[in-house]
Amino acid sequence: MRVLKFGGTSVANSDRFEDVAKIALDTASRTQTALVLSAPAKITNLLVALVNQGAQGNSADKEFEQIRAIVEPIITDLGKRHATFDTDKVLAEFNNTMTVIKQRLDGMVLLGVCPEQVMAFVESRGESFSILIMSELLKALGKKVRIINPVEVLVTEGGYMESSVNIELSKAKYAALEDDKEAITLMSGFCGGNSKGELVLLGRNGSDYSAACLAAISQAECCEIWSDVDGVYSCDPRAVEGAVLLKKMSYAEAMELSYFGAKVLHPRTIAPIAQFKIPCLAKNTKNPQGPGTLISEQTDLSVPIKGITDLKNIALINISGPGMKGMVGMAGRLFTAVSRAGVSITLITQSSSEYSISFCIPQSELAKAKRVISSEFRLEFKEGLLNPIEVKEGCAIISVVGDGMRMVRGISGKFFRALAEANVNIRAIAQGSSERSISAVISQKRATEAVAFAHTAFFNSLQRIDIVLIGCGGVGGELLNQIKRQRDHLREKNGLDVRVVGIGNSRHFICDANCIDLDNYKSLLDASDSEPLTPESAEQLIKDLHLINPILVDCTSSEALALKYVDYMQAGYHIVTPSKKANTNSYEYYRQLREASKKHHRKFLYEANVGAGLPVINTLQNQLAAGDSLIEFEGILSGTLSYLFGLVEDGKTLSEATYDAYSKGFTEPNPADDLDGMDVARKLLILARECGLELELSDIDVQGAVPKQFLQGANAQEVLLNIKNADADFTKMVNEAKAEGKVLRYVGSIKNGKCQCKVTPVSADNALYKVRDGENALALTTAYYQPIPLVVRGYGAGTAVTAAGVLSDILRIQNWARED
Ligand code: ADP
Ligand code: ASP
Ligand code: MG
């Protein structure tokens, strides 16, 4: 006999019922077959909700309606497809059950409570619907069926809501049943019967356990658990991309994985089949050809670690105090008290000093646990032998599971390093005595990232970087080109998987978890009718696309966006930008940005703010962090002015040089925006603030390259004409400088806490003397670099170098993640 269990998604609608029937008939053509069925997806939750409504005195009309809306179409669809499927009979039986449920509900409404016995009955009705429909379908397909009632066969011990099956007693019950080799056996999952013959439940998701018990008592050759995934994966495949399908694992590994949260198997499933060495196969109803995962006595040691799991909604309790030390039996009393209250303990750790014991329980049991501990140790608490109970709520247990752990060294090192890289704070650690698992208790908020980082460490050497780009014009567009060109290289040489998961502009936003098609993003964006990104939608995006370490790259010149960086950091994004808008806003906002970055553990990087791709900001930050301090700064910070002043040096007039730069596209659309010095002033402000000066833009003494009156004009042409009026004075300055062996440069300087930008004559011994033709140069005289300054020099403008600066910031962000 083979026992096949089908979960809720496998019987969610009429098509799925047909799939299951096909699999059942196919198996039955080879061997005797039994099916254990769950309720159609969502039905049990609706029944639970219905019971809760009833207990509160409500009629639960909505739940009734929703249950009908799921079940009735299954019945009528199948009736239409199969001539001998007796729709009327099945509908009548379904309606009968619904009437009984309604009667029970009326009783609850009257009483204002729902006794557990009634609760168990109502909540198990979803399974009875599945059996009703499947038996009619199999008969319509010409197959005989034998229905066995779990209440009569699975003998249970425990309460109405979560009982265990006594295998020996159940075996005898099963043996007494009449067999029918021709028929497919059907049994509803999720319930059994106690010694009084009353219906009891086996706990939520208990149908897997029902199947395992039926396999054990019928001494089946195999127990197959069919769900909506291809088998057991190294991680929940819906939560972690790149989860690996496991071919084989041992019973012990499967038990540990399910115990620590792998929902694909109910934690109690394995024990009954392991006891009789019955192999278990986990398979996908939608992909019956797939090999599935085989759980048996043998494991596959070539995969030493089988999986990473997370168990959420956990509370960590710590009991400590002088009374703990050396007192025999304290731990025994503690755990006996807790287990007597019916609270299951998921994990225990004890400090080696015996001063404290920490353990995890489901958060829902916290009040109960505290009550029994307080009562058990009331004297010790009163005498001060024990400290007040410490509780950390909202925890998750992250576990690494695998038989190979015993043989392979460094597993725990790798695990904890991964958690450290994810910047996750560990609250407690435990290693299973079997050396089959290591667990860390962390904040639940960090569970997704922690699992993803640990999974990457064990199963995938690639680090992921998820980019959301806003603004794909000049620099943004070039950045996308560079990413497209570098992706393969970064993957192979640096182990980095760089994905552009979102691209937006002021009108629309498109996204794709697997990287947007970088050849067609423009048309995709134009064709999209989506709304632009907001911090709120960005936060949702992290959840929807399972982003681990997302970066918002702002390649716009939008002030509105720059003023939202704090919100984006709070939503979970690092910020990388060439835009100077945020850093040159008020000092108060500048400060808020740094605070938010610290608070949310998000990076804010803006290397391209000054000198485009030149290593300026990072160099300066490193120098200051190493204890250096700025004495004086002098620099040529505008590529345009650098080019223009080079031409002047060669004998062109100011207006000729400006026209030349303008016609080559080296200036802003209106050259006045280069010549007024404000762009240089902004860069200077950023450098000054970096060095700790709390300045505003208005504090900078800006003397334009050309006096203001010569920069007036309605458009570029008018400005270019007007500039001619400045030529005479300017040429005079050039000549005066020349007479002294100097050249004119547009220099930004910081000295004695003051910032200034102006045209400055510089002599041959100055580092800026030779800087022209569009080059930038920054001379930093510092405590460590004096009297000869540290000079950074090179092209400091242009989309390619700016985009490269942005990309290098992006690459610096790997391995950074958010802290609580
Ligand atoms: P069923 O309703 O068929 O019993 P479940 O929803 O209980 O199915 O279990 C299947 C789900 O378990 C999958 O959809 C998957 O998201 C989740 N899951 C969690 N961890 C794992 C894992 N390690 N391997 C496979 N699936 C997992
Ligand atoms: N239908 C039950 C539940 O949802 C049992 C199961 O699906 O395993 O909990
Ligand atoms: Mg399940």
UniProtKB/TrEMBL annotation:
Q: What chemistry does it catalyse, as a reaction equation? A: L-homoserine + NAD(+) = L-aspartate 4-semialdehyde + NADH + H(+); L-aspartate + ATP = 4-phospho-L-aspartate + ADP; L-homoserine + NADP(+) = L-aspartate 4-semialdehyde + NADPH + H(+)
The similarity annotation says: In the N-terminal section; belongs to the aspartokinase family. In the C-terminal section; belongs to the homoserine dehydrogenase family.
Q: Which residues form the Aspartokinase ACT domain?
A: 317-377, 398-458
Gene that this sequence comes from: thrA
CDD domains, per the entry: AAK_AK-HSDH-like (cd04243), ACT_AKi-HSDH-ThrA-like_1 (cd04921), ACT_AKi-HSDH-ThrA_2 (cd04922)
Q: Where is the Homoserine dehydrogenase catalytic domain?
A: 615-811
- A Pfam family that the UniProt record links to this protein: AA_kinase
Q: Residue ranges of the Aspartate/glutamate/uridylate kinase domain?
A: 2-281
The name this protein carries in UniProt is: Bifunctional aspartokinase/homoserine dehydrogenase
This entry's Gene Ontology molecular function terms read:
aspartate kinase activity; homoserine dehydrogenase activity
Q: Which domain of life does the UniProt lineage start with?
A: Bacteria
Relate the protein's function as given in its record: Bifunctional aspartate kinase and homoserine dehydrogenase that catalyzes the first and the third steps toward the synthesis of lysine, methionine and threonine from aspartate.
Q: Give start and end of each Aspartate/homoserine dehydrogenase NAD-binding domain.
A: 471-607
Oligomer status and interactors: Homotetramer.
EC number(s) recorded for this UniProt protein: 2.7.2.4, 1.1.1.3
Needed co-factor(s): a metal cation
Q: Cite the entry's keywords alphabetically.
A: Amino-acid biosynthesis, ATP-binding, Kinase, Lysine biosynthesis, Metal-binding, Methionine biosynthesis, Multifunctional enzyme, NAD, NADP, Nucleotide-binding, Oxidoreductase, Sodium, Threonine biosynthesis, Transferase
According to the record, the signal peptide region is none
Q: In which pathway does it act?
A: Amino-acid biosynthesis; L-threonine biosynthesis; L-threonine from L-aspartate: step 3/5; Amino-acid biosynthesis; L-threonine biosynthesis; L-threonine from L-aspartate: step 1/5; Amino-acid biosynthesis; L-lysine biosynthesis via DAP pathway; (S)-tetrahydrodipicolinate from L-aspartate: step 1/4; Amino-acid biosynthesis; L-methionine biosynthesis via de novo pathway; L-homoserine from L-aspartate: step 3/3
